[in-house]
Amino acid sequence: MTQTNQTAIYFENVCYEIDGISILNNITGSFYKGKITTLVGPSGAGKSTLLKMCNNLHSPTSGEILIGSLPIESIEPSTLRKKVGIALQNAPIMKGTVFENIALPYTLQQKKLSEKEAISCLENVGLNPDFLYRSAEDLSGGQKQKVSIARSLLNQPEILLLDEITSALDPTSAKEIEELILKINQQHEVTIIWITHNIEQAKRVGDYTWVLINGQLAESGNSTILTESKNQRIQQFTKGVKEQ
Amino acid sequence: MTYTSLMLTLIFVFIPLILSKTLKLGLEKDTLIATVRSIIQLLAVGYVLTFVFESQSFLYIFLMVALMIVAATLNARKKGKAIKGITWKIALTLIVVELVTQGILLGFGIIPATAQYIIPISGMLIGNSMVLSILFLNRFDSEIEASREQIELILSLGGTPKQAVHNQLIQAIRASMIPTIESQKTIGLVQLPGMMSGQIIGGADPIVAVQFQLLIIFALLTTAALSSSLVGFLSYPALFNERMQMIKQNWNKR
Ligand SMILES: Nc1ncnc2c1ncn2[C@@H]1O[C@H](COP(=O)(O)OP(=O)(O)O)[C@@H](O)[C@H]1O
Ligand SMILES: [Mg+2]
């Protein structure tokens, strides 16, 4: 880690419980500005929960989260969520056309998205402009995922949270989306936190990685820890994933 | 009707009892309880009504209506236990429904301001408002459950709680109003409405009975629209906290 890294999001002793059951336990660490940090770990480890804390969809039971240098609760939730976009697991789609889905962030702010802007959004994520007036619910998994990403990008977020966006996709679509995210990261210096259960992908795309196991941050650091970590639990996890 | 004839109507209770016994339906106990309860409750209401009608005191009318609202509230709130403050939200809805409907009926002199009119009409409208509130809460709950992801999506894009549940709210309000509207389309074709039948049997001119029935079904439309929208708009904020998060529900407890 170089000295010049600026912190985009900082977690300090963050715990999260539901009805007294611990879901996340004492998480401390930084996500760096303009970098891609992957979040890996077994299913049920708490990855999605942690991700949703970064845009205040959940609040810690105890501990603190800083966005830049501001406590997360000091930022008005809608303002924060426009700045910290998220592509949710399963890419939820609203009834209606692709246009309506992509324009949703504007619609919520009573702004109009022009057809020209919408087409450029589609092109940006590699979707054919002919899709604009199709029913979004009829798209394939990969296309829905692209719509979901285009929609999140409309708010021009500084930080983008991605929850298993390629898990349900065929290798070609997965590759396309992976490249799209790398492009977004490079062109606009968007900070990215990326949940993936694909260790190879994590190594490929991530500058840094957090390994979350059973609600605890087992290890975090350079993506190389995914191959080189001496931590038994991490070795077990990465080995297990490969064998699947 | 004489008391002897009333006694003879108990034959209608014996038939299901015998059937239940021979077919082993296991409904004997419930049938008996239902019979006894209806006799006691209705007789009690009959005596109370006689008393109130004779006194013609507004205090008693007020007390009767208040009692109806309390009973209806306690019944309807069971469906919305997960919603904070549901009891007063339903009570407020029923009060508004009663004030608006009676306000129009009495204010325009559509009905005379006597217990004979106010109490039965209030009973019908409050009862319906209660059923509508229950229908709405059931439907709203399942709409929300089916669209948790969409709701979270809108919040995650910077939308407000109101924007996030808008579709579900409108769907649930619509869905709970539709049966009232639909049932009016066929009214009188298959079966005569209960109140109208009662009046006709009691010797009223069918046209007069129809006039009152129309009054009731029109008032029921207002009741349906008011109840579901009021309960809806009063209850949706309780699904969110002040940080615009959906209040976490433990899956395992559902
Ligand atoms: N509403 C809830 N009620 C009960 N348990 C929950 C709820 N939400 C999440 N959990 C539990 O929290 C843990 C972490 O979930 P999640 O963050 O989705 O994990 P991951 O994304 O790593 O698969 C899981 O064990 C899950 O069962
Ligand atoms: Mg997850």
TrEMBL record, chain A:
Molecular function terms, GO-annotated: ATP binding; ATP hydrolysis activity; phosphate transmembrane transporter activity
GO cellular component, one term: membrane
Organism, as annotated: Ureibacillus yapensis
Domain ABC transporter: 9-239
Keywords of this entry: ATP-binding, Nucleotide-binding, Transport
Pfam family, one: ABC_tran
The protein, known as: Phosphate ABC transporter ATP-binding protein
CDD domains registered for this protein in UniProt: ABC_PstB_phosphate_transporter
Any one Gene Ontology BP term: phosphate ion transmembrane transport
Keyword set includes Metal-binding: no
InterPro entries reported in the protein's UniProt record: AAA+_ATPase, ABC_transporter-like_ATP-bd, ABC_transporter-like_CS, P-loop_NTPase, PstB-like
Automatic annotation (TrEMBL), chain B:
Family to which this protein belongs: Belongs to the UPF0014 family.
Organism: Ureibacillus yapensis
Encoding gene per record: fetB
Main location class: membrane
Membrane topology category: Multi-pass membrane protein
Pfam families named in the record: UPF0014
Keyword Transmembrane helix: yes
Segment forming the signal sequence: none
Protein's name according to its UniProt entry: Iron export ABC transporter permease subunit FetB
